[in-house]
Amino acid sequence: MREKVILICEECLSRNYTTTKNKQTNKDRLEVKKFCVKCNKHTMHKESK
Known about the structure:
single chain, 49 residues, mainly beta, Rubrerythrin, domain 2, four-stranded antiparallel sheet, elongated, Large ribosomal subunit protein bL33, Ribosomal_bL33_sf, ribonucleoprotein, ribosomal protein
């Protein structure tokens, strides 16, 4: 079963992206390097609580 997650920029803490992940196979938090519009650069985005 896939679940929606929100990705938050580590630098400015803006919520930029939504995605889905499989909770059964990925227990830990998702971390992806994506472009942040507010920072205007590529930053690490982590899954919110």
